[in-house]
């Protein structure tokens, strides 16, 4: 699994103090993403790409292929535009997270009693329905790389591979995933996308940048 994102182009948020002279979809008082880049001659430049982005429909993001393609493009060229493309797609994406299902004491006892009654014949439990009395807690799994912890998210359940066989799978909007990662007790360093195929890490410093981006989705 990769370390947190290490890229010469760093992304921040700034607030627009004045109304733009052109209609970019942003207005005075709103925050926009801007980039700081060090050139080959060690000069520091700041800029923001406020050109209108490609408009997306929900079905464009359904199978996760657009996000995976954006990650592939970034890994190939590692440009600022490729980075922005990933961030914008993530802003509107649904992703899958692996979770441990934790039963409360009452439901856990009912489940244990059912297994005990089977007396080792687990095949006899096929087709039996057991309704939970209280809510089941879904606790996201956390990956560790050295001293760093990462919140895993996947474009599809298939991208989890064998690892995913050990977990329940929950689909969440990526903005919800950011909130879960930010509030995790492990103090994660970032969110890793597709950790076991072609991984890409969103560093926690960019969480707010994604949250403040304008949606590219249009509803028909």
How would you explain this protein's 3D organization?
By secondary structure, the protein is of the alpha+beta class. It has a domain of 128 residues. It has five helices and ten strands. The strands form three sheets. The chain has a four-stranded mixed beta sheet with strand order 6-7-9-10, with helices on one face. Strands 1-2-3 form a three-stranded antiparallel beta sheet. A hairpin with a 5-residue loop joins strand 2 and strand 3. Helix 1 runs antiparallel to helix 2. The longest helix has 14 residues. The N terminus is likely disordered.
Which helices and strands, and how do they pair?
Elements: E1 9-15, E2 31-38, E3 44-47, H1 65-77, H2 80-92, E4 94-102, H3 105-118, E5 137-140, E6 143-145, E7 148-153, E8 168-173, H4 174-182, E9 190-193, E10 200-203, H5 207-212
Parallel strand pairs: 7-9
Antiparallel strand pairs: 1-2, 2-3, 4-5, 4-8, 6-7, 9-10
Q: Spans of 5+ residues with little confidence (pLDDT < 50)?
A: 2-9
Class per helix and strand makeup: alpha+beta
Put simply, the count of helices is 5
Mean pLDDT over all positions: 77
What is shown here, in short?
The chain is α+β, with helices and mostly antiparallel strands and 220 residues long. Helices cover 25% and strands 25% of the residues.
């Amino acid at each position: 699994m990769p370390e947190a994102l290490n890229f010469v182009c760093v992304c921040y948020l700034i607030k627009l103090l004045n109304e733009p002279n052109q209609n970019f979809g942003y207005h005075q008082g709103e925050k926009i993403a801007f980039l700081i880049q060090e050139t080959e001659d060690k000069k520091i430049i700041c800029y923001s790409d406020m050109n209108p982005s490609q408009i997306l429909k929900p079905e464009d993001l359904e199978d996760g292929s657009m996000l995976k393609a954006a990650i592939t493009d970034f890994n190939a060229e590692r440009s600022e535009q490729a980075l922005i493309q990933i961030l914008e797609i993530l802003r509107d994406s649904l992703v899958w997270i692996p979770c441990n299902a934790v039963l409360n004491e009452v439901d856990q006892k009912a489940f244990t009693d059912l297994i005990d009654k089977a007396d080792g014949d687990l095949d006899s439990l096929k087709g039996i329905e057991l309704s939970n009395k209280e809510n089941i807690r879904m606790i996201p799994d956390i990956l560790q790389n050295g001293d760093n912890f990462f919140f895993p998210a996947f474009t599809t359940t298939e991208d989890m591979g064998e690892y995913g066989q050990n977990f329940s799978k929950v689909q969440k909007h990526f903005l919800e995933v950011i909130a879960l990662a930010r509030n995790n007790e492990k103090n994660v360093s970032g969110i890793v996308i597709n950790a076991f195929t072609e991984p890409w890490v969103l560093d926690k410093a960019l969480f707010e940048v994604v949250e403040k981006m304008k949606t590219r989705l249009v509803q028909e």
